[in-house]
Amino acid sequence: MDMKAVYRYIDQHAQDLIQDLAELVKQPSVSAKREGMQECAEKVESMLQETGFSTRLLPEKDGNPVVYGELKSKHSKKTLLFYDHYDVQPPEPLEEWRFDAFSGKVHEGRIYGRGTSDNKGNIVSRIKASEAFLKTIGDIPVNVKFVVEGEEEIGSPHLKPVMKQYNELFSNDATIWEFGGTNYEGRPEIYLGLKGVLSVELRAKGAIRDTHSANAPLIPNPAWRLIWALNTMKNDEEQIMIEGFYDNVQQPSKEELQLLKEMPLEEKKLKKAYGLKEFLQGRTGYEAKKELLFSPTCTINGFLTGYTGPRSKTVLPKEAMVKLDFRLVPNQKPDEIFEKLVSHLKGRGFSDIETVQYGSTEPTKTPVTDPFVEIVAKAAEKVYEKRAVVYPTSAGSGPMHLFRNLLGCPVVSAGCSHADAKVHAPNENLTIDGFIKGTKFMATIMNDLA
Ligand SMILES: [Zn+2]
User: Where are the alpha helices (DSSP H) in 303-409?
Assistant: First the structure.
């Protein structure tokens, strides 16, 4: 259909978009602190209801409720699912915010506040895109489902059990994931996958208490134990040495490699932003992009042991601890990688080191050749009048695999954010222009999928 009336409706209701977003931003919903979760879920639910969606709050023991919304099209059998989250990252450090972190303040064409870009702006934008159809043509082009969870920022620990319990609610033909926006050149960016992640802690123990370091010839030092163990896990050419670690790594397809060539990487900007002269191993250009998106990693997140205060203390610590994460690519499985790590340490004589597995998510990807990818890319180009940048995957992680791997639907991530959104940081913001365009973009996807 001709989208003019829908676009006009969205333009004319820009003020409603801003107001609805401010209402959600003013309701803090910090999952890490369990602050305002139920209240925010109810706000999202009532916005969906007011638009005409039938809704449910899907509870899960000890978890924050998942908001579910559904609206049937009179003419289409196809179903588009929007995955979003109403929880946000903690706003700290508060003193670095120009405006109150939960204000939704409008200033020079931007809306400021925690959650504006990640992910409340997207929730509002997608609801308004649905409303624009209902108010102009009295129907929506496809059946639309909303799944808005409240634990994305803490690793979605309860989403899988909720999806299992309410299995029948989640079926769909295509899913739009929560994030995306425009880059520094104003080109829309869409993502076809996410890496997995496995978080691990290693602990080494020595004597039952800290001792005088004069005893070093006799008493084992757990800090050295950990360092020696770590030394067997990765070499100085950045290769991970855990036996079998790379066994199941899926090589990128030729279409994915082609996309890499076209994908911009702001090397100079990034190096400047991080204060670096060079990337690791001197990586640059195509190679840097390939490593970023398709290589699994092993990262030391933190190391804790002994005395680290002023001056010196000649102590021999009783324990040492290191936190690690592994970013995984298809078809690596977090549980298998953990098992390989445990047996690697055992095989190298480090069975005294305790291993603890924390949260994990699986990697996933939708193939570049899936027809939905082209629908989304074309829709972006219609609205932004610039060629879309299609990322075969993002270097980040999230529960996308639950939809892609369990339900089998294509999943593409796209949204209304922008390059200077300061997501997870002070002064998070969303441009009003991006908000409006992003809403038209979502409406266009609905129309084109139909
Ligand atoms: Zn986030």
Answer: 334-347, 371-384, 400-407
